[in-house]
Amino acid sequence: MPFQNTNVYNFSEITISSIAEVGGVYGLARATLLRPGYYTILYVGKSGNLRERLKYHLNNPPVPELPTSSPSALIMRRDEQSASSN
């Protein structure tokens, strides 16, 4: 299973504002139309400050395929998300 220990969130300002300013690994994806629950990974990154990097990507998509007007997914490793809840 390719996404063990991960959580999927909407890639939006509301989600990004809830992420702590910690380092971590993230992926940006779009939903696969004919397979609900499956995603096409468009970009994978690592940052020392997830909130700032994701804010930047929201306004300046790193890949042209990243939909800015339709729902996109933010995929984070579970241990990175739990660190952001502190």
Characterization of the model:
There is one protein chain. The protein is α+β, with helices and mostly antiparallel strands and 86 residues long. It has one domain (6-81): 3-Layer(aba) Sandwich (GIY-YIG endonuclease), CATH 3.40.1440. The protein is built from three helices and four strands; from the N terminus they run βαββαβα. Strands 1-4-2-3 form a four-stranded antiparallel β-sheet. It is globular and about 35 Å long. The model is unreliable at 78-86 (pLDDT under 50).
Helix amount: 25-40%
- In the CATH scheme, the class would be Alpha Beta
Count of distinct structural domains: 1
Shape: globular
The end-to-end span amounts to: 28 Å
Q: SSE order in H/E notation?
A: EHEEHEH
E-strand count: 4
CATH architecture level-2 label: 3-Layer(aba) Sandwich
List the helices and strands and how they pair.
Elements: E1 6-10, H1 13-17, E2 24-31, E3 39-47, H2 50-59, E4 73-77, H3 78-84
Antiparallel strand pairs: 1-4, 2-3, 2-4
Relevant terms:
single chain; 86 residues; alpha+beta; GIY-YIG endonuclease; four-stranded antiparallel β-sheet; 3 helices; 31% strand; disordered C terminus
Question: Quick recap of the structure?
Answer:
26% of the residues lie in helices and 31% in strands. The protein has helices at residues 13-17, 50-59, 78-84, and strands at residues 6-10, 24-31, 39-47, 73-77.
